[in-house]
Amino acid sequence: MVWFSLALWVYTQTQSVLVLSIMSGIFLVVTAITSIWFGSLVDHHKKKTMMIISSAVSLISFILAFIMYQTFPDEVFKNYQSVSLWIFISTTFIGVLAGNIRGIVLPTITTILVDEENRDKANGMSGTVNGVVFLASSMISGFLLAVSGMFWIFIGTIAVIIASIIHLYFLKIPEKGIVHIKPEKGQEAGPQKMDFLETLTVIKKIPGLFNLIIFTTINNFLGGVFMPLLDPYGLSLVSLQTWGVLWGFLSSGFIIGGIAISKVGLGKNPLRTLFLANLILWIICIFFTIQPLVWLVALGIFIYACIVPFIEASEQTIVQKIVPKERQGRVFGLAQSIEQSASPLTAFAIGPITQFIFIPFMTTGAGVDLIGDWYGVGPGRGIALVFSAAGIIGLVITYLAMKTSSYKILSKQYLES
Description:
Helices cover 80% and strands 0% of the residues. The protein is mostly helical.
């Protein structure tokens, strides 16, 4: 809720797509850098301990950011060149970043608590829980931003984090101990460390897994257009309050998708499910902005929300089955790092590209005469054109990836393991 709200609020204050692009880029760069370390922490410490530490860091960061929000002059938040504004954004970001530890912990706990036959359904239920939270936070944030800016966003978030820390403290997780890595024959057990190269070697030893991560990396590279552009596009059609409430209703798709998985699972081959879901997503990306219609955007986002849990649950289920327990935290962390390594390039680049190329193209440039009669003209149509282009590229890449030998090898590896 905090990052979603902050992005919307900063945009309304500065009216700059470039700021959202930089924020998205920083988020993805630091996430990619820290994910390997976070994964190592998860493997080397009790899961419950890491979740409490994650929440505590978020709590401290948000309290500091709230103090800044209350004490900085209003002019600071309207000037995207203000150092104080970026200190405020960075402090808030640290709290959001710390929450990624919990994201890495969750699938490893699923491995501990749930038997192999039911893990896909458990992953779907996790998606449902996340969907409920996303729905509630999206709807709440729209109203709170309209009423008080970031004030009640921070107050509510701080209260929820305090409650979650208390809940975690009393929650019992049957984790007997830390699963240590067994030394190779002839080697002595050494101290635990953040062994990037060794973990990368483990991934390479599993046929097709590394290529799956690379495929997801390419998808994230293209998907990076959504972070800085979706909110400005939505706000070109409706008001801030309407956009926040609309997101709340549409995010019910995450719940529907998660419930569907928890009931029927992902099928015999989650890898096939993952690729088919990606094909659907890229088709949506091509058409959901084809006309400047709110209902069309809403329909596209809703279907997108229904499909995303299938992609996330499929990847988690594959890793949970074919990667040893003592490595899963680092593999999930390393995968997150590699997969998001390309997105920063998109996030940093797409803002200027959109603002200086696509928007002029559909406002005063050749695009007005070429397709303006049926596609529409103006800044919003320039953003829409970026989405369609990304969708076409993503659709082609996903189709070609399904035809590779790596796809067949990993499918066979999963079914036989």
